[in-house]
Amino acid sequence: MSDAGFDLIPIGDLRELIPHAGRMCLLEAVLAWDEQTIRCTTDSHRDPRNPLRSDERLSALHLCEYGAQAMAVHGGLLARLEHGGTAAPGMLAALREVEFAVERIDDIEGPLTVVAHKKIVGPTGWLYEFEVAAGARWLARGRVSVIRP
Known about the structure:
Elements: E1 9-10, E2 29-33, E3 37-42, H1 63-83, E4 91-100, E5 112-122, E6 125-134, E7 137-147
Antiparallel strand pairs: 1-2, 2-3, 3-5, 4-7, 5-6, 6-7
């Protein structure tokens, strides 16, 4: 993946490509992407109005949603590139091999970097690996499977 061929893309320019709306669109910008990988950034984990917060805290479990949204943005970018349209709708089917290095993320200083790597694409769905970090600090990683309904 190279940053050289692409400018930073504010997520507002991509909202039509993904099923998330309003504050549920957790990612703020795409830093780089190619056919296999996307790298996004966000500070939404520190936003007190983050819709995933409970009791003013944001669990590390929600990093899986950040990973799944990076996957959705990547699918939307690929669909736009391939046929000028949007990605086929999908439903999150499974999370596997998920590991966390923290319990909560609302207290993490600095922006998150969310990376999703496409592993398998077929007529029934997609499999991606994701990893979330804050600077050099690894926070979570795992696999996300999405099926076409």
